[in-house]
Design brief:
The chain is of the alpha/beta class and 381 residues long. It is built from twelve helices and 18 strands. A seven-stranded mixed sheet has the order 6-10-11-12-14-13-18. Strands 9-8-7-15-16-17 form a six-stranded mixed sheet. The two termini are 19 Å apart.
Length: 381
């Protein structure tokens, strides 16, 4: 397992050394995407704010560029894929790290691994009452947890990210909260690793004259915003992280606040360049919080799970990263897995996610149907 993952990581690292325009790293035989409308993308240079978009004009694409000197005057407009609609929003007044701990709200929706699938994302948020038809927050004091991997594979990553960005301020104004927790694909993109990036984005980068590796760099708005996000959060007696908490993380002696601060310090730094042993553990491709799979695969010893939950001060751990056919509860409901086949569900006319209401977890689909969670086995099975 270690050898296989190491090979994948090495291949991904090699891809970052090749010119962006050379080829779309991954499997070029299955990626038929090409340049398409995209943006806005916001960069900071020479005390100026530069906003660039690719706009569809008849049968061709046109680069639209604006320059601002006043942050307050920037109004961004993001077209909605395959429609005539758009949503507008302003740049945030400031970007600050999110807390690691929150009280449990009355209701909380959890989505994971959207991977640029705006249609499924919008369908689930709208049907669950999180947004209205104008993409405005309508969830009141409820919370929504986005559990990582909103990048790659799909073709509408930019639109998904900006909608989350927009909803954060609207949720807070209504007494609610949006939680965006970093996954392994966010980590890869912050590093400038294009292994899983679709050809569309590499071609768009060339047309915009902006290297894809800078789209989420420290001089971009989305890059700065993502660098404020946590790797792990505890909400009530639930702990959330993309891959999972390993016993090695629990034994390292870091509080959740310390873990998140260390993770944020090294976002954008390849693992090979991290010397701090605790940071290396956080980003480790087997035991780190972004990549760990043993709990979701039902292979984590019971004693280790108990140690992990005690470390986090939680009764349940919620993870994405590992695909499941349904929202799945393992270890008598103490591990909840929410990474689903969104494309397949969408082809069948619906989307699914996790709803936590009054502390109890349910499966929820876009038709409004709730289900109890399917409990699969115990540790070691």
């Amino acid at each position: 397992m270690r050898t296989c993952l190491l090979h994948i990581r090495i291949l991904a690292a090699l891809c970052t050394l090749l010119p962006v325009a050379a080829f779309a790293c991954g499997d070029p035989t299955t990626d038929y995407s090409g340049a398409g409308a995209d943006g806005p993308h916001v960069f900071y240079r020479n005390r100026q704010i530069i906003v660039k978009s690719l706009v569809q004009q008849d049968s061709s694409l046109r680069v639209q560029s604006e320059v601002f000197t006043d942050r307050q005057s920037v109004v961004l407009r993001c077209p909605v894929p395959e429609s005539q609609r758009q949503f507008s929003f302003k740049l945030k007044e400031k970007l600050e790290p999110a807390p690691a701990n929150y009280p449990l709200p009355e209701k909380m929706l959890v989505l994971s691994d959207i991977e640029g699938n705006f249609q499924a994302f919008n369908l689930m948020l709208h049907s669950a009452g999180v947004i209205d038809s104008g993409f405005n927050w309508t969830y009141g004091a409820g919370h929504v947890v986005f559990l990582g991997d909103f990048f790659d594979r799909g073709l509408y990553v930019t639109e998904v990210l900006w909608l989350i960005y927009k909803l954060e301020d609207e949720a807070e104004a209504a007494g609610g909260r949006v939680h965006f927790i970093i996954g392994n694909h966010e980590v890869l993109n912050l590093e400038g690793n294009t292994y899983y990036v679709r050809r569309k984005y590499l071609e768009n980068a060339a047309l915009l004259g902006e290297d894809y590796r800078e789209w989420f760099g420290r001089q971009s708005e989305l890059g700065r915003w993502l660098r404020t996000k946590n790797a792990v959060e505890k909400i009530g007696d639930y702990v959330f992280c993309h891959g999972g908490l390993s016993v090695e993380i629990a034994a390292a002696g870091m509080s959740l606040e310390e873990l998140n601060a260390l993770a944020r310090r090294y976002y954008g730094v390849p693992l090979s360049e991290i010397s701090d042993p605790r940071a290396r553990l956080i980003f480790d491709i087997e035991k780190g919080v972004f990549w760990f799979r043993m709990a979701a695969r039902n292979r984590m010893p019971e004693a280790e799970l108990q140690q992990v939950l005690a470390y986090a001060g939680a009764k349940r751990m919620v993870v994405g990263h590992t695909l499941m056919p349904e929202i799945t509860a393992l270890y008598n409901g103490r591990v909840l897995c929410v990474d689903l086949y969104h494309d397949q569900n969408l082809r069948n006319g619906f989307a699914k996610t996790l709803l936590i209401e009054n502390g109890r977890p349910y499966g929820l689909d876009s038709r409004g149907e709730r289900s109890g969670l399917f409990k699969v086995g115990m540790a070691g099975n």
